[in-house]
Amino acid sequence: MRILVVGSGGREHALCWAIRRSPLCTELLCAPGNAGIAQMATLVPIAAEDVEALTAYAVDNAVDFVVIGPEAPLVLGLADRLAAVGIKAFGPSAAAAALEGSKGFMKDIVAKYGVPTAAYGRFTDADAAKAFIRDKGAPIVVKTDGLAAGKGVVVAMTEAEALEAVDAMMADKVFGAAGDELVIEEFLAGEEASFFALVDGETALPLAAAQDHKRVGDGDTGPNTGGMGAYSPAPVVTPEIERQIMELCVLPTVRGMAAEGKPYKGVLFAGLMIDHGAVKLLEYNVRFGDPECQVLMARLKSDIVDLLLAAAEGKLAGKTVDWHPDPALVVVMAAEGYPGPYQKDTVIEGLDEAGRVEGVTVLHAGTRADAEGRILATGGRVLGVTAIAPTVREARDRAYQAVDRIRWPQGFCRRDIAWRALQK
Ligand code: AMP
Ligand code: GLY
C-alpha cells in the first residue's frame, strides 16, 4: 500500500516508524513531515490543515490509505473529503471529531450516555458564566469550547481567577472564536492518566495507558506545555481501572456516537482523573497523544497498518494487540523559552550517537534539514528521545544517556520524567 501520514510532529514520526515496520506498507509519504521523518518517508510539502490540497494530492498520486495525525485537519473534515473521493483514511469525520473540537458537545454526549465526568455548565453569556462561578465557588475549571492549542483551560483555585478567565476568554478573546462559548466545570482531584482505544464505529479495541508530564519544569512546576515526556504503561491504570475506563467511558461513548448518527472511527484518547479507585472522564481527544504516541509505538508489536485499516474499515471485531512487555519512556527536548517565545533554526548535533544507545530511538518533533544536511530546530518541542528497557528506571537511564550525547546548547529537557511511576 502507498500510505500518506499527515502531520509533522513527534507523533507523526512515531507513526511513520511503526508503519515502516509493516509488510503492508510498500511506500510511505508524509505531509509535511520533518527531518527525522525524511529518513524513512518521502516528504510532501503540503500543510496538515490544507484539506483541499491534501485530498487532491492523494487522488493524483493514487494513495491507498491516509493516516491523519493531528486534530486540526480532522475537525476541518479531511476524513470526510477523502471518503468522498473514495480514499481510505484513519481518523474520525468532522462530526465525530467534535468530541475534541467542542468541549460543550463532548460534555453533552458523555452526560447523555451516562459517562462519569465533572458536573458542568455551557455559557455563551459572560454574566451567566460569572453567576455560575459565584454560585459554585472555587476551585473551579473554566474552558473554551473550541480548540485553543491545549491552552484554553484554566484550573482556577480562587473565584477571582475564574472570573478573570471568563473575561480573558469571552471579552478579550485571547483564544479568538474558541472562547465564544465556555464550559465551566467542577474541579476533580486525583491522579491523571491517558488511555487509548481504537474504534471502528461500533467496536472498541483497548490499546494501552500512558501518563505524560504537562508542566514545563521538574517536579511538575511552571506553565503547561503540550507534554514534556511520557511513559507507558501507567502504573495507576490497573486492570480494574482499565475495565472501568472501557465499560464506563469508552463503550458508552462509542454507542452514543453511533446512536447520534455520528459513528466514531479512529483512535479515542481519553483523558482521565483517577481518585480512590474511581475513574472520571476529563476530556476526549480524537487522535494519538503527542508524546504518548511515541511510547505506544515503541511498545507495539502488532502490525499497526493492519490495526489502523481495520478501524477505518469497520473490521476491529476479533482483533487483538500484542505489546512488548517492557515499559517505554520518552523525554522531550524543547527549545529554551518554550512554551513562551524561543529561537528557531539552532543547530542540533550528536543525534546519531544518541540513537546508538541500546533501546533508544530519537524521534523528531520540530526539525528541518538545511542545504548542508545539518539538523535545525524549528519548533517548541523539537525531539522525543524514546527508550524501551526491562524496567522504567532502566528506560529512563537509557533515555537520559542519549540526551547527554545530543549537543544542542539552545535546548532543554525535564530531568524527572516518570517520577510518579518510579515512586510506586
Ligand atoms: P483538558 O484539555 O480538558 O484535558 O484540560 C487540560 C488539563 O486541565 C487536564 O489535563 C487537567 O490537568 C486539567 N483539568 C481539566 N479539567 C479539569 C477538572 N475538571 N478538574 C481538575 N483538573 C482539570
Ligand atoms: N500530550 C497531550 C496531548 O497530546 O494532547
Could you characterize the architecture of this molecule?
Helix 1 packs parallel to helix 10. The strands form 5 sheets. Strands 10, 11, 14, 15, 16, 17, 19, 22 and 23 form a 9-stranded antiparallel sheet that branches. Helices cover 32% and strands 28% of the residues. With 424 residues, the chain is α+β, with helices and mostly antiparallel strands. The protein folds into 4 domains: 2-93, 3-Layer(aba) Sandwich (Rossmann fold); 125-180, ATP-grasp fold, A domain (Dna Ligase, domain 1), CATH 3.30.1490; 191-313, D-amino Acid Aminotransferase, Chain A, domain 1 (2-Layer Sandwich), CATH 3.30.470; 328-423, Phosphoribosylglycinamide synthetase, C-terminal domain (Glycinamide Ribonucleotide Synthetase, Chain A, domain 4). Adenosine monophosphate (AMP) is lined by residues 118, 141, 143, 153, 155, 185-188, 192, 271, 282-283.
Tags for this model:
Dna Ligase, domain 1; Rossmann fold; 14 helices; D-amino Acid Aminotransferase, Chain A, domain 1; 4 domains; alpha+beta; 424 residues; single chain; 28% strand; binds glycine; five-stranded parallel β-sheet; binds adenosine monophosphate
